[in-house]
Write a structure and sequence with these properties.
The complex is a heterodimer of chains A (319) and B (261).
Chain A lengths: L25 H27 L2 H18 L2 H53 L4 H17 L1 H22 L7 H19 L3 E6 L13 H14 L6 E10 L2 E8 L12 H14 L4 E5 L6 E8 L11
Parallel strand pairs in A: 1-2
Antiparallel strand pairs in A: 2-3, 3-5, 4-5
Chain B lengths: L11 E5 L3 H14 L4 E6 L2 H11 L3 E5 L7 H7 L5 E6 L7 H4 L4 E4 L4 H14 L8 H11 L12 E6 L2 E6 L5 E5 L2 E5 L4 E4 L3 H7 L5 E5 L2 E4 L3 E6 L5 E5 L2 E6 L12
Parallel strand pairs in B: 1-2, 1-3, 3-4, 4-5
Antiparallel strand pairs in B: 6-7, 8-9, 8-12, 9-10, 11-12, 13-14, 14-15
Helix pairs in contact in B: 1-5, 2-3, 3-6
The chains are: A alpha+beta (319), B alpha/beta (261).
Chain lengths: 319, 261
């Protein structure tokens, strides 16, 4: 091994072996390439070994090599090799240290990144609570209905009140929310949207009564519902159906929002709300929760949140 | 200059909003403020509005900014110079002040009678002149709104792939790498693998080059998913991934991506 590492010399210390192929006769070229490959492998193995080995061990090995040199009676060559090894050790040791500090720095940066994203996810979730466009459009609609159809204006206003009543407490942090609360919020939202979009929106909410006490993070279902309307149904002239459903499969609560709209656009903007849900799920449940976007056979989009099924403790704050 | 060219002397307008109630509201209030104004058509989105202006040639178009499909800003761009545009919106996030210097007006829903009377007064004065093409204003608004056509190039953010019998949308941020395998391309995430038909060569065109690097003829890896780059015993660069055991070989053509500093 030691005799061979002379050949590559110091030329290609950093890179895997740049091609400086000098022309050779056809037959020997193949063989030379093989030898060259072998040398490169040896060289790197030697390099890594030098980088990893302790100084003490290296000194010991050097001593052995010197003894060998004495036996073989080639002191100059072996002495030269040892000196080269020491130089490489100094350089390679530095490289290894640099790698270690780099990996530590990466780890630290990742932790910071994670903490920052937790904070950002929470902030965005809070900001996304009540979409101003929704609020002002609804108020403008009520204003119009007061003149043309007062009973409907009253119904819309009551739905808005129900919506705000469930949305506003969620802005306060730490409130433990249930699937039931989330479904009520979205149901109130859908009532309003049905009045505004008229025949273009047909909502179906089918969440079993027994699952309404399950723990479910705030504003995630609502984001899915808003997405389904904004990106799925609104762009479709004839509109379509929006379905909210929930079931428990293998201890996992699966809540889905399905729409029969124009289908998911791989490039479109959107995605921010979904990325936020993903981020929050990761923070809250790690690998035990996920958001799945799938395309139903009949078209449209189906978004499903799966997370561990837990019943909320009785101490939940009153709505 | 071209004031006398119109056959009908009565001013005309179209109203575009995706919600019928909102169209009714604008039309109702316009009737009170400007009884002579003839509403020649209603549109539920930008595309319909553009078609309507082309067929009816009204003097004025009231365009809701947020409409599905083609929005109000895009419609106004398509109609630049053809019609006097008044933008309507429920929530002002697009710097109303920008309109004060332009030829257009900007109404907030629900418009109160005094405000709509002012709009009508402005329009009466302007209608005799040719409509302002509003180039600068529209470019500025489109930028604020992120409308199509002006923004930076959009890359693929989701990959549609079959997982078993299901079709799923996988966010690119979840993907560790793509790898060509026979007729398909394998999409690997930390949780599962999926297959797509799109070849690597086409994929790389659509992926954000800041997010994904090609490291081999048949492999594209997400940069953030790389744990470290090491060397195999044969001296080849090998990429190790976060949370996944498979190692990916870097071919020599792409060695430069991981050149040591």
């Amino acid at each position: 091994m030691t005799t061979e590492q002379r050949n590559p010399g110091t030329g290609n210390a950093a890179e895997g072996g740049p091609s400086d192929a000098n022309p050779e006769p056809m037959g020997t070229r193949q063989a030379l390439r093989q030898i060259r490959k072998g040398i490169v492998v040896m060289w790197w193995a030697f390099f890594d070994w030098l980088a990893a080995i302790s100084w003490k061990a290296l000194l010991l090995v050097s001593l052995l090599v010197l003894i060998l040199a004495g036996i073989l009676n080639r002191p100059n060559l072996f002495f030269f090799l040892i000196v080269v090894s020491f130089i490489i050790k100094i350089v390679a040791g530095g490289k290894r240290r640099a790698e270690q500090t780099a990996s530590e720095a990466t780890k630290r940066a990742e932790t910071e990144q994670f903490e920052r994203s937790v904070l950002e996810a929470r902030m965005e979730a809070l900001q996304a609570q009540i979409e101003p466009h929704f609020l002002f459009n609804t108020l403008a609609s009520i204003d119009q209905l007061i003149q043309t159809d007062p009973p409907r204006a009253s119904r819309m206003q009551q739905s808005l009140i129900r919506y705000l009543r469930s949305a506003i407490p969620q802005m306060r942090e730490g409130s433990r929310s249930t699937l039931g609360q989330q479904v009520d919020l979205s149901a109130a939202f859908l009532e309003i949207m049905v009045m505004r979009m008229e025949g273009r929106l047909q909502p179906v909410v089918s969440v079993p009564e027994g699952l309404k006490s399950a723990v479910f993070p705030p504003m995630m279902l609502q984001t899915l519902v808003e997405n389904a309307i904004k990106h799925g149904l609104e762009p479709k002239p004839e509109g379509g159906r929006l379905e909210i459903g929930a079931e428990v499969v293998d201890g996992q609560l699966a809540v889905h929002v399905l729409d029969t709209g124009v289908g998911f656009m791989p490039k479109g903007e959107g995605g921010v709300g979904l990325a936020n849900i993903r981020e929050r799920l990761k923070v809250l449940y790690g690998d035990r929760a996920e958001l799945i976007i799938s395309v139903p056979p009949a078209g449209g989009t189906c978004a499903t949140i799966k997370l561990p099924y837990n019943i909320a403790a009785a101490s939940t704050s009153p709505q | 200059m071209n004031a006398g060219t119109r056959a009908t002397p009565a001013p005309s307008a179209v109203v575009a909003d995706d919600e019928r109630l909102m169209r009714e509201q604008i039309i109702g209030r316009l009737k009170e403020a400007w009884p002579e104004l003839v509403i020649v058509g209603e549109a539920a989105n930008g595309r319909e509005a553009v078609a309507l202006v082309h067929s009816q040639e009204p003097d004025i178009a009231f365009l809701d900014i947020r409409m599905p499909g083609m929005d109000g800003i895009e419609a106004a761009r398509a109609l630049a110079g053809r019609v006097h545009v008044v933008f309507v919106t429920a929530y002002d996030e697009y710097a109303v002040s920008a309109f004060e210097q332009g030829a257009v007006d900007y109404l907030l829903k629900p418009p109160d009678p005094a405000r709509i009377a002012l709009t009508c007064e402005r329009l009466r004065a302007r209608i005799k002149e040719a409509p302002d093409p509003m180039n600068d204003l529209l470019a500025q608004l489109a930028q604020q709104l992120g409308s199509a056509g002006v923004g930076p190039r959009e890359y693929m953010r989701w990959v549609q792939a079959s997982v078993g019998a299901n079709l799923r949308m996988i966010p690119t941020s979840d993907i560790l790498f793509f790898r060509a395998e026979d007729k398909y391309t394998r999409v690997q995430t930390p949780r599962f693998e999926a297959l797509i038909r799109k070849p690597i060569k086409e994929l790389i065109e659509e992926l954000d080059p800041k997010e994904f690097w090609q490291i081999h003829r048949s492999t594209v890896v997400r940069v953030d998913a790389i744990e470290q780059v090491g060397r195999s015993l044969s001296g080849k660069q090998v990429v190790q991934l976060k949370g996944h055991d498979e190692k990916l070989e870097v071919s020599r053509t792409f060695n430069h991506l991981f050149r040591q500093m």
